[in-house]
Amino acid sequence: MNPELIDQIKGLIFGQAIGDALGLGTELMTKKQVDYHYPQGLIDYHQIIQDKHRSRWKRGEWTDDTDQMLCIVESLLATKTVNSYNIATRIYDWAFQGGRGLGQTAYEVLTHPAFLSNPSAVAKEVWLKSNKNGAANGGIMRTAILGIWQYKDANMIKYNAEKVCKITHYDPRCVGSCVVVSLAVSELLKGNKNIDRLLSYLSEEADAYDARIREYISPQKYSNFFVNALGHLVHQESEIPKLSSDITDLKLSEPDSLGYTLKAMGSGLWALAYAESYEDGISQIIHEGGDADTNASVAGALLGTKFGFSSIPKPWVSGLLRREYLEEKVQKLIQVIDKQSVK
Hints:
- By secondary structure, the protein is mostly helical.
- It has 14 helices and two strands, in the order αααααααααββααααα.
- The chain has a two-stranded antiparallel ribbon.
- β1 (220-227) and β2 (233-240) form a beta hairpin.
- α1 (3-23) packs antiparallel against α12, α3 crosses α4 (84-95) and α10 (261-274) packs parallel to α12 (292-307).
- The longest helix has 21 residues, at 3-23.
- It is globular.
């Protein structure tokens, strides 16, 4: 495996974990509260306040977002395939053996008596009980890693992202946003660096799942009619950017959509399109508050893939707790993927 690809894979995993650990510092805060608690900005783990919510984790420790991503990593290493049932049992074991931070949707699914026999059916039942309104971000927070596995095969990326999302989250917005993030990772690994074309491709793929996803991706086509030089009325498909360069337009700390899967996806794609570096993207996202650890997890995975592990600030790496454990998993996963690619 070439060094650039190794740097990207390592960048994704560390990028997610670091975004998660830093994002915890502003999770569930409004922008006003972020400014109050971090008047000079949040730039290091040791600054993270230790209130009732945050004191459940040590400074520099990642949360449930990365824990669940690592359930997928452990399953990939053990089974050498994407086995959704194996992943489901690992998430279940994690949740009920001291797992912290489990979201409401995931909790309802995991505590259902039929979960271990048919996770996807249970996830669908919970979604239907929500009147098809449950589109939380508990699936997308763990999904970026699936963009690494069989990354050259877009159809397999989509298939794997769909079935792993549906372990706990059945809403088509959840499924589609998981697919979008996983496809973004795979395209970056394939060397596709034209972000405008990538976003256009992701928009088209998202349409197969739910029309509401597109509004968080750029560009969006709209109809335009004009009269040409011959006096004929002509219909033309034009493109306008929907993903604003101003991150505040995502309204990440808006109370009514705090844990919305499309907000998390939008954060990641915003970072991919506009952040000048890994540090720049993570810093801007966490200072918006809201569900900051999840938003920064998704963005961190995408930015880590785009810019590589070598781009992540060294103090953020050295201050991350259990980084040796993460390094071990990275090296094992790279070996498995390398063997997979030569078959």
